[in-house]
Amino acid sequence: RLGYHCGMDNNLPNEYSATLRRGATFGPVTFTFSGIDLTAYTLTAGIGAADLAPTLVKNNATQVTLTLPAALTAQLAYSVGPGFRQGRNAWWMDATAADGTIVPLLGGVFEVLARGNHD
User: What is Dmax (Cα atoms) for the chain?
Assistant: First the structure.
């Protein structure tokens, strides 16, 4: 579980990337982001070319948790050896206001490594 402060400065997404390990007993990966007022927004997110949907939960007015269950991670492209980059999966999280205005919050890359591999 990681904490990360995000904001809406200049209406540009903040970059947040992580490396994940794929394995037979791989459990969920959870990220918690905080620091902005989310009460007036609906949140959406997607990962990879198919925009697979992670679980998003608003914990309170200024904090959201993004969870990648094992089943979702198993669907992402993954690297099969050290130094290979085919496992880089772009991801994004947007906030939508009641008037339909979309504000990009976060974006980055989740790199998934096969069990036993590392950078």
Answer: 47
- Helix, coil or strand: residue 91: strand
pLDDT digit string, tens, across residues 21-44: 775 556 688 888 888 888 889 999
What are 14's strand-pairing partners? 106
Distances (CA, A) of 43 to 23, 52, 76, 105, 117: 29, 14, 21, 9, 33
Q: For the segment 89-115, what is each residue's pLDDT rounded down to a tens digit?
A: 999 999 999 999 998 888 999 888 776
Closest CA to 89 of 64, 54, 38: 54
For residues 109 and 88, is the Cβ–Cβ distance under 8 A?
yes
Distance (Å, rounded) from C-alpha 97 to C-alpha 23?
38
Question: Alpha-carbon distance 112 to 80, whole Å?
Answer: 9
What is the pTM (predicted TM-score) of this model? 0.78
